[in-house]
Predict the structure of Glycosyl transferase family 2.
Amino acid sequence: MGPITEPPPRETALSITAIILTFDEEIHLERCLKSLSSLVERIVVVDSFSTDGTVGVARALGAEVAQRAFTHQADQLQWALDTLDIRTNWVLRLDADEYLEPALIAEIRARLPSLPSTVAGVRLRRKLIFRDKWIRFGGYYPTVLLRLWRNGQAHVPQLRMDEHIVLNGGEAIVFSKDFCDHNLRDITWWTEKHNRYATRKMADFIAMERGLGKANGTGADADASRAWKRFLQYAVFRRMPLYLRAVLLFGYRYVLRLGFLDGRPGFVWHALQGFWYTMLIDAKVEEARLFIAARGLDAFRAHVADRHGIVL
């Protein structure tokens, strides 16, 4: 009988708390949690009272669960940062339909413990998967996002859309490996979600147009590339004629940024995300303008609050 081989030791978790916001994410959550299980010291699932098996999956895989009614992503995430008594050195934020690739896990292990104190955040490269196809073109890869930061050194601007993290100070660096955004649901779910997003975008557009306080495009941003995109979106793109914007955006992504190289799944993605979604926003903006012209701004504000739960 040969020598008994000891199993390899389990890798020590780093001083990281991972926060995952959920609502009915049973289909994705196990994949997400397993990608984090050996890397982070603590995982907290902040759930909006899911009706499926999300909470059971989270607890079965060792995550803590906190439940709270949902308003919007930024509000939920800031509540988590303020409430969860986080004591680890770092905080990581993922969506349930996202997961870390092994190469990124290895990079975080190798680099994070030795980062100088001047580094307050780490930007990670997101790889979008649609219908099992990596969308490499059209300007979607890499999307670089601040998702890992030193505890207590960041906050979440309270925006209805485009939730993101902003550092309170210090510098951010970019790691070279990827995490994946790979939603497994069907087109019906995708279009219903983006219909809701288009309503929020419309509300932000009208808020800016009518001077109803701060809109979604305001606020400092530690990520220069994101800040530039937000400037283009809110200072340039929104000033273009309605409907023309959808045509120009699709042409830019699909032709100039080589989206056609993503094949059939890429055509569906760029046509829906670049053209249909933008057209839907514009149609809702035009509808809102007609409503205001006929009934007045106060009636419109009451309408969106009653119909969509959006306070302008």
